[in-house]
Structure formats: C-alpha cells, structure tokens
Amino acid sequence: MILRRAPYPLVCALVGIALGWVPSWLHGPIPYKYNVLGINGRLAVWAWYVARSLIGFLVGITAWPPQWWLRGPLVGFLTILPLGIVSLATPGCGPP
Q1: Contact in structure between 33 and 93 (CB atoms under 8 Å)
Q2: Which tens digits make up the pLDDT trace of 36-93?
Q3: What pTM does this model have?
Q4: 82 and 47 in contact (C-beta within 8 Å)?
Q5: Angle between the 46-61 and 68-89 helix axes, to the nearest 10 degrees?
Q6: N or C: which end of the chain has fewer CB within 10 A?
Q7: Cα angle for residues 69, 2, 22 (degrees, 5° grid)
Q8: 83: which DSSP letter?
Q9: What CA–CA distance (Å, rounded) separates 22 from 24?
Q10: Are 33 and 41 in contact (CB under 8 A)?
Q11: Beta-carbon count within 10 A of 95 CB
C-alpha cells in the first residue's frame, strides 16, 4: 500500500489539506462579515482556510506529545486560537 511507504509528515499534510476545506463548506467565516467593516472579506477568510489546512502538516512535523491523538487537538487548538480571537473581536460574531 502506498500510504505505508509515504513519510508520516507528507500523509498528515495531505490529509490536513483535504480535511481543512470541510469546515468552509459547512460554516464560516463568511466574507460579508468583513466586507461590511470595510475589510476585503474574500481575502480575510483565507486566513481560516490556510490555518485549518496547515493543521495536518503541523501535526506531522511536531514530535510532542508522542501520541498523535493528543497532538492533533493540541496543534489544532494552538493554530486556530489566534483566529478565534479575531472572530470574537469582529462585530456581529460571537456572544452578544
């Protein structure tokens, strides 16, 4: 099987790129939310797309913690946290 021969970071990166787009089909952020603030929304939402796609790559190149099932949520949380703070600072997003 080809996946057994592929390097672990490459497999993680490919899975991350593939699965990183799933949230964009199900929920935001939507460009309109930033357009009304005078920000180029189509460009701004790319930060979320790129960050979600990078999670797999970062899991693949990270050695700590050794268990992948702990590393995935930890790296995912640390990757998305800054953008989550931006989302909470955006008017009309987050709790009222």
Answers
A1: yes
A2: 999 999 999 989 888 888 888 888 888 888 887 898 899 989 999 999 898 888 887 7
A3: 0.73
A4: no
A5: 160
A6: C
A7: 50
A8: H
A9: 5
A10: yes
A11: 4
